[in-house]
């Protein structure tokens, strides 16, 4: 089985998604990441959710007070 296949659909995270994830991990803040990358906060959240769905794992712990850790 190809590690890049998820079911019958080919999926591979983009460099942009990886860059977004790295910046969120560095800042621990979705809003700050969005501002720095000239994106909306929902777009950042969607990118992280897409990665998590593709890998079938939660990568970040969310805390409404501290956004993530």
Task: Write a concise synopsis of the structure shown.
The chain is mainly alpha-helical and 69 residues long. The protein has helices spanning 15-27, 30-36, 41-55; strands at 5-6, 9-10, 62-63, 67-68.
Helix content range: 40-55%
- For the record, what CATH class of the domain at 28-69 applies? Mainly Alpha
Shape: globular
- Sheet of most strands: 2 strands, antiparallel
Taken as a percent bin, the fraction of beta residues is 5-15%
Could you state the order of secondary-structure elements as H and E? EEHHHEE
* DSSP strand count: 4
Give the overall pLDDT as a whole number.
85
For this structure, the CATH topology of the domain at 28-69 is Arc Repressor Mutant, subunit A
CATH architecture term of the domain at 28-69: Orthogonal Bundle
The Rg value, from CA coordinates, equals 13 Å
Task: Outline the low-pLDDT stretches.
Answer: none
CA-to-CA gap between the ends? 33 Å
Counting DSSP H or I runs of 4 or more residues, the number of helices is 3
**Can you identify the CATH superfamily of the domain at 28-69?**
Winged helix-like DNA-binding domain superfamily/Winged helix DNA-binding domain
Spatial strand order of the main sheet: 1-2
Structural class: mainly alpha
For this structure, the quaternary state is single chain
Pfam family, one: HTH_1
Protein name: LysR family transcriptional regulator
Domain HTH lysR-type: 13-69
InterPro entries: HTH-type_LysR_regulators (IPR050950), LysR_HTH_N (IPR000847), WH-like_DNA-bd_sf (IPR036388), WH_DNA-bd_sf (IPR036390)
